[in-house]
Structure formats: structure tokens, C-alpha cells
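Re: the 412-residue chain
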Amino acid sequence: MLISEIINKKKFGKTISVKEINRFVQAINDWSISDAEIAAFSMASLINGLSIEETTNLTTALIKSGVIMDWESVAGDLPVTDIYSSLSVGNKINFIATPILACCGCCVPKIGISNMVNYSGYGTLDKIACIRGYNHSPSLHHIKKVMKKTRCVIMGPNEEFAPVERRFHAIRCMISANNSPAFSTASILSRNISAGIENLVFNVNVGRGSLYKDMSIALKLSEYITSVASNFNFPLKIIYSNSDYIIGRNVGNSLEIIEIIEYFKSSPENRDKTIHDIVLKVVSEALILSKIAKDYDEAHQKIERALISGMALDIFGDMIFNLGGPADFTEFPEAYLYKSKYVKEIKSNEKGYICDIDPFVVGQETRNLTKQSDGFNHGAGFSEIIPLGSFVEKDDIIAYVHGNDIELMENA
């Protein structure tokens, strides 16, 4: 069976069989298919769509390409759960929710992915790569050792689990095919089922700063992921968040990690409201779904206890250390994160109220700032972006821009 025949069928909108999907996924796994052929299939599938049945078959093939984790020896009777908050500008929820859930009595093996080529900022792996020494592709044996100590781990696909999705996802990103409901569904479910997750809360971000610009796209995705998850008897809760604004005040890999640490250390009255409102919503749903809490009030109490006691931050720090990062990272994060050469003030050009900040533009400019001739600037982006509704005088500082190229910073 030729790969070109499979691509051609989807190019003309025909249904591809389970055998053809298995052949395609196997070809990705054994590298007998080129990146160009993967891109052609992805674009044809984006334009003509994959049915629920095709998506279920694709998800199954992706799962079977690697191992499915078994946590019985590690978790015991503890629920194995996760929260997946979809890509949006400034989104730090996946990082924050993971140690809180672990602190509340869940086991959380999170398989993140890189979104380095997307306009709207960057994915879980892009942020974690900022921490010097952190190994985001550990062996299964090492993952289990870390899980025993911290009950959570943030990692990426490797040769043992979800190996095909690592390559497949990167190519889909390059051709902007990742907002396909079928591909999103197959990606999310295959990674979480491979990770041995027992249930999942899926936080769909909808708006200008997201992959899903309007509710109609989000509802289509929900239809797909609910239908496919039911074929695996996989408990799933979907909630929606507004991403017409930036989540938090920092955008950019290292800068967002700094804001994550600040969130954990903040007193209740000083927490960023845009972050905390989503954390309360998604973590509460996960605790209820996992039967750790009976209702929102009990869930909120557990979340507050995890934050105020400092236990969630301790777990986060222990996880980083056990995956190769520095022991004192949460005390001195800036000492171990990549930084830009220059930081420039952005000042208001008039007096008034900040009525809108377009997250799409901020995401685009962050991506532009990260580009450099000798690689990638993890320290680039924007920090201390002024909250919406703030009153400013002319020449008040409304944000800082970080970069290695003065011209790019001026443009931003």
C-alpha cells in the first residue's frame, strides 16, 4: 500500500480505512514516510475533514505506536488524572494545575507538546525547556521514580510513549493544521490514554488568543472529542474559557515560568485574577471528577490549602529537581532561566483607561522576538502587561518588552 494512495484518497475527500490509517501511522513511526508526505496528508485532512470513525482509528493507531503507562505500583488507590488547557496567549494553567492536583491527592502524568511555531505563544515543552538541566524526555523507569516522590511529572513524548505524535504534531503545527477538530482530538486523547490517565478535564480556550477563534469551532471540537472518548470509555469533562484577553501579565517562555512561581508564592489578595479564576474552575472539576472533592466548596478549600501552605510550590520544585533541574529553582528562578540581552519600557502615548489588549498581536510579536540567527531566544516576550481597566497617565509604563534584537523590540 503506497502512502501516496492514502494521501490521494483524502485529497479527494474519500474515507480512509483503519488499515490505511495504521499504515500511515506506522510509516511515521519507522520514518519510511517523508515530512512532505505527512504535511500533504495533514493538509488534505484539514480541508476535507476526518470523520468520527476515522478519528477514532487514528487515535487508536497513535496509542498503539507506543506503550500505555501502568501506574498501579506507583499510584495505588490514588486517582490518575490530568487537566489539558488548550493553547492561548499567556496560558500557564497546565503548569499550575499539575502540582496542585498532586498536592490534593491525585497522580498527574502530564505529556506536554511543543507549539514553538504557533502564533499564540508556546506550549508546555517550550516553557519547561527554559529551565536549565530539566529532562523533559525521561525514561519510563525514571518517570515512575519521580512519580513515587512527587505524584506528578511534566514531560514530552519519547520513544516509549506517544512516539508518533512527537513528529506528527510538529509537522501539523508548521502547516497550521492543528486547529482541526480531528487532529486535536486524536492528539489529546492519544497522549492522555498513553499516559495512563483515568479521566481528563479539557479546558477549551475560545477567542482571539486561541487556536479556536469562535464558539462554533470549539463546539465542533467538543463533539469530536466527546464521541471519540466514549469509544474508549474514557471519562471526560469539557469546560470553556474566554481567551479574548491575555492570561496573566507575562507572555514568553521564561517570563511565564517566572509568573508561575510568583502565582504560587502570592497571598490570596495578590494573586492574578485572570489566572486564579481559571485555576479554581479547572482544578475543581478535576477533583470532583476524581472523587477527591464532593463539590466546588470542598474543592476550593483543598486548592487554597495547597497554595497557602506552600505544598503545591514544594511539589513543583521537587518535580523539577528530580527531573534534573536545580534544587533551589523555586527560590531563585531567574538564576536558571534564559534571559534576553535587553529590556525596554513600553509607555502609554496618552492619558486614559486600558480598554483592550489584543492577545493575537501580543502572541505574534512574542514569536517574532524569539527568532534569532543562532537559534531560539527563550527569554523573549512581554512582562508586567498592565491589566485591562487600568487608568494611566501619558508616559506611564504599560509593559516591558524583552529581546536580543533592538530593531525587533522597537517594532514590537
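The longest strand covers residues 199-206.
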